[in-house]
Design a protein that fits this description.
It contains 1 helix and 8 strands; from the N terminus they run ββββββββα. By secondary structure, it is mainly beta. The chain has a 5-stranded antiparallel β-sheet with strand order 4-3-2-1-8, with no helix packed on it. A 3-stranded antiparallel β-sheet has the order 5-6-7, with no helix packed on it. The model has no long low-confidence stretch (mean pLDDT 85).
Length: 133
């Protein structure tokens, strides 16, 4: 509900990846309005896309080369080539926060889905148009 926020929406594994909101990170010490992705222990992936207040459809796709792309309401924020993620093992998955208290998201998260494949844009648009808004 805030125009300046921080926190992780979803974290997959302690050594895996996540997506959230902040400035260049989603730690509480770096509040902001940008969508931020993370490859744990590898790199932060800030986008230039502001996340407005209210409900939104947010997607993070990692292709076979390890290149992540975030989508906001069916629109790509652009691909971000660089060092790829570590594949998460059997570690926990967190919704609404990460494995550290400095990354908890103060907001609501609904209808979380995980896929074992990179969704093409047509699937992302179908999910968004089908009511995942």
């Amino acid at each position: 509900s805030s125009a300046s926020n921080s926190g992780e929406f979803l974290k997959i594994g302690a050594s895996g990846y996540g997506i959230g909101i902040g400035s260049t990170t989603f730690d509480n010490s770096a509040p902001g309005t940008k969508i931020v992705m993370r490859y744990e222990g590898v790199r932060w992936i800030p986008t230039t896309t502001d996340l407005p207040t209210g409900w939104h459809h947010i997607v993070m796709v990692i292709d076979a080369s390890g290149v992540p792309t975030a989508y906001l309401d069916g629109v790509s924020t652009g691909a971000n080539a660089g060092a790829g993620p570590s594949a998460p093992g059997s570690e926990a998955t967190y919704i609404g926060g990460g494995d550290t208290a400095t990354r908890w998201f103060n907001g609501s998260v609904d209808d979380v889905r995980l896929y074992n494949r990179a969704l093409p844009l047509s699937d992302i648009l179908a999910l968004y148009s089908g009511g995942a808004k």
